[in-house]
Design a protein that fits this description.
Elements lengths: L2 H4 L14 H9 L5 H18 L7 H15 L3 H33 L2 H15 L7 H13 L4 H9 L15
Helix pairs in contact: 2-3, 2-5, 3-4, 3-5, 3-6, 3-7, 4-5, 4-6, 6-7, 6-8, 7-8
Amino acid sequence: MSILRWLGLQQTPTGPAGETETVRKIAAALDGMDEAKARYVAAFAYVLSRVAGADLEITAAETATMERLVKERAGFGEAEAVLVVQIAKAQHRLFSGSENFLVTREFGRLAGREEKLALVDALFAVSAADQSILQREDAEIGKIASELGLDHGDFIAVKGRYRQYLEVLKPDSPQ
């Protein structure tokens, strides 16, 4: 394997329909897991990192929340969850401009409606990890919900559960 491919900088032949390099890289780290589940977890973790990085900084609290969510969702141990989240964050830093929509679309193909709603809830949980949801994060979650084909009402219903963290609704908000 070339160093460029290992770093994720060289494209590899396309895998299953629409699968992205990011999803392949994370799924490969989950060697031994059912391929479909590995792709699902990989896309889930990447989309979490997409929202955590919306403000150009992924905090320790956001990382810990992502690890907890991946651990719960995939039934992983601590080490596996940390590995998946670290790879997802690295892939997001490197390829966010080109991969965000593609990975989200892939998650949408792999997930049912309830799983999509659970992802939106997880996105708000990651954003609220530092006790504040910035407008940029809120807007990114709305964009993701739309990319997943969810109705605006679905987005608003989930968002309502995190109302107390919305920075725009706090007094003296700088936004």
